[in-house]
DNA sequence: CGGTTAATTGACGTGAGTCAATCTCCGTGG
DNA sequence: CCACGGAGATTGACTCACGTCAATTAACCG
């Protein structure tokens, strides 16, 4: 059903991302690449990689594509709680808990590696740099989650949307997905609404305001940030919480 | 300055909490108790245990008292992103990142154990059950953070405040801090506002509504939940995300 | 060319914020 | 014993950012 997966080096974004956290050893990289090769999968847009309530027994590392983590209330209200980008891992450790407390849906076609728990534990145990890098990634993901709470709780709509765009820009940058000041942006206004806690209508108007000030161009799934500095100021954005800087 | 700390068994809430995640071994408990004894500290209400931007080099395990994690925007807006209760650990692993991305403030007098990184790593390495339990605790904390995003993003004020009360109730229960249907509740309306993304005035009115429906009594730092079932229904609350059930 | 999903607009309603005054505790000092 | 001050809780009046509803347009796809 799926075509064979044979692109040049699928593990590239993962390695770049983890390397930004901790210098990976040659050995660690090799082990990781092997594990990824052994568990390649694909998902289609709209497909759920995991659903709230599902048992968890493996870790997924995203190689290409965009996804989102989301939760749904009984009456249908939906909140996207995070985006998942290439190089991110889904639940590097949620498997310590038995059950998913949220769902993970693909926004685009997605390639990922599914690593079963035993293989994953072996991987962690076999290389220290890899273990630390993966834990770091998990910690950063928590930090992002905290910032989202702040974003939704204390920023007004314009700041809020601007902040989300800044975050995505900063996260796409280190994995080589920013071209100049532009990037693919496969997020519908409905997704943006569910991610920011706003209504679709208001997101639409907010985007128009950002466009109107010449800060961004967003059309045809392509985002261009004309004035990053000003966008960050608008959003009260500081990248510190992304912990991108390598540390000693 | 501080009186000596010699209460009966300070480590009790920690052990209860971790045991709810993973059955701790005798050995693990002993090691943990020793580590806690070696690093006892106190903090006073209003004091910050850590401040955004601080370097991190130790783990703090809370033995008694309430704290909150919070972030502040440049113009003073504040968002509490989580409460920290006895048995919780502060950043069991944020120390993998070099710098705090948020602050941690004491709401009440607090007793905690400060365990330096080397001692903490040794602790984790020496007992498997302890290591897993502490990672679980970290994962649950992430799950809570996600639920807060949903709470603030998609629930209306009444649901939102009710949800927070339900969560705190469920978290206080396993550490023995619920007496009947009541508990100490040292959280001001200003704190509640900063935790729910509402204004103080609106929190006040929302509490009155909850009181008016006979769901809760809240006065003199004492919270009584008269009708937990109904409060949960009001909040669209499900405790699943707290992953309290032990698993096999 | 229909059918669908996403984006956009306008009109209107409202939940929640802001401002500002008042009230209630408390602890402190004279 | 009481004036004073400060923190927290409470109220009322008013405002507005954002939501809802509903219709229209644009883009895409077989």
Automatic annotation (TrEMBL), chains A, B:
Pfam families to which the protein is assigned, alphabetical: cNMP_binding (PF00027), HTH_Crp_2 (PF13545)
SUPFAM superfamilies: cAMP-binding domain-like, Winged helix' DNA-binding domain
Transcription regulation keyword on record: yes
Molecular function (Gene Ontology), one example: DNA binding
Keywords from the named record: DNA-binding, Transcription, Transcription regulation
Residue ranges of domain HTH crp-type in the record: 155-229
Listed CDD domains: CAP_ED
GO cellular component: cytosol
InterPro entries in alphabetical order: cNMP-bd_dom (IPR000595), cNMP-bd_dom_sf (IPR018490), Env_Response_Regulators (IPR050397), HTH_CRP (IPR012318), RmlC-like_jellyroll (IPR014710), WH-like_DNA-bd_sf (IPR036388), WH_DNA-bd_sf (IPR036390)
Family annotation (PANTHER family): CRP FAMILY TRANSCRIPTIONAL REGULATORY PROTEIN, DNA-BINDING TRANSCRIPTIONAL DUAL REGULATOR CRP
Protein name, per record: Helix-turn-helix domain-containing protein
Organism: Bradyrhizobium pachyrhizi
């Amino acid at each position: 059903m799926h075509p064979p997966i044979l692109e040049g080096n699928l593990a590239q974004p993962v390695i770049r991302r983890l390397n930004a956290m901790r210098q990976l050893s040659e050995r660690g990289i090799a082990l990781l690449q092997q594990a990824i090769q052994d568990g390649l999968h694909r998902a289609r847009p709209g497909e759920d990689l995991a659903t709230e309530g599902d048992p968890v027994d493996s870790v997924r590392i995203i190689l290409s594509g965009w996804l989102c983590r989301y939760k749904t209330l009984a009456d249908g209200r939906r909140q996207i709680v995070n985006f998942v980008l290439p190089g991110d891992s889904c639940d590097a450790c949620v498997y310590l808990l038995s059950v998913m407390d949220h769902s993970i849906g693909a926004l685009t076609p997605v390639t990922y590696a599914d690593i079963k728990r035993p293989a994953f534990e072996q991987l962690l145990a076999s290389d220290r740099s890899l273990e630390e890098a993966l834990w770091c990634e998990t910690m950063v993901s928590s930090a992002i989650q905290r910032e989202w709470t702040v974003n939704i709780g204390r920023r007004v709509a314009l700041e809020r949307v601007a902040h989300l765009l800044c975050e995505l820009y900063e996260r796409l940058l280190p994995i080589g997905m920013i071209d100049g000041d532009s990037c693919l942006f496969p997020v519908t206004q409905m997704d943006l609404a569910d991610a920011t806690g706003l209504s679709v209508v208001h997101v639409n108007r907010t985007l128009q305001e950002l466009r109107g000030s010449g800060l961004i161009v967003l059309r045809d799934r392509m985002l261009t940030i004309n004035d990053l500095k000003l966008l960050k100021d608008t959003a009260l954005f500081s990248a510190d919480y992304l912990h991108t800087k390598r540390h000693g």
